[in-house]
């Protein structure tokens, strides 16, 4: 629902004036905030909100803490979105939904070494992925983001990375991505992990190394699964085609993420090398099985991919795929495996297609 923010603030301002006990300091802060909003050029409002929120929040805390809040003021505050949230402004659709539904933890931790400050401001964990906002600031004012600096370091052959620990143990096999935010916050990135088998509550330690200083930047963050609404699906039996035995080990649905874990094996007793060698070339790229998956709901809507990772050991190949959630919870999920033809067109493999009902 769209709201006329200026109109609501004017109403709140007028209503606040009717409260006789409102202290002069709060009145001055509110008047100052209104003038800033009214006089700010439209093209700068999006960037300005981040700093402005501190003043607005301080005023709100003083008003609410003192008991000076009217119904109109309460309604106006409730209808103001969290405009300073990078997840809400620049995240994928799942992170935006998580922000709207209150699934985000405000971390607000900063560590400084040798004129460089690294901050983690927001974090979301829904049982499928961990996403966090990483911001880098320097006293020289260049303020290159961690991702920008990492790209340059990679070109030079330097080490520039992040390590993650869960309850003191280094995180093992997991997918990892880092996405630049852009004009909204050019020195920030959204870092996303897709680990398996984490508990609903744990302590996450983030250690950042190699950013032109010898001392690592260490963060310790209590993390809790924030997805109250979640569904876990799996295939009842594997599909078999061209020596490929495929099953959906897990398909998790939360308001923020859809995560699918696919297991692929060959014939019983085949080791991984023998299995891959026996698979037709149309399913392989450089001796590795390269099948992608289209995820569709009962309306025919196709989910947007957020990335994937794969690994192999023993006789199994395991792939983890992440997708943006559908606008509404689906009644069923269809998983359509495909490969690209030589003409770069999708060639579906109907023999390996799965239909997964979603329980209410």
From TrEMBL:
Q: Which residues form the signal peptide?
A: none
Report TM segments.
48-69
**Matching InterPro entries:** DUF4179 (IPR025436), DUF5643 (IPR040680)
Span of domain DUF4179:
45-135
User: Keyword Membrane, does the record have it?
Assistant: yes
Q: What keyword terms does UniProt attach to this protein?
A: Membrane, Transmembrane, Transmembrane helix
Supply the Gene3D superfamilies for this chain.
bacillus anthracis domain
| Keyword Membrane belongs to the record | yes
> DUF5643 domain location, by residue?
241-353
Q: Matching Pfam families, A to Z?
A: DUF4179 (PF13786), DUF5643 (PF18705)
- Quote the protein name from its UniProt record: DUF4179 domain-containing protein
Q: Which organism is it from?
A: Paenibacillus glucanolyticus
Organism taxonomic ancestry: Bacteria, Bacillati, Bacillota, Bacilli, Bacillales
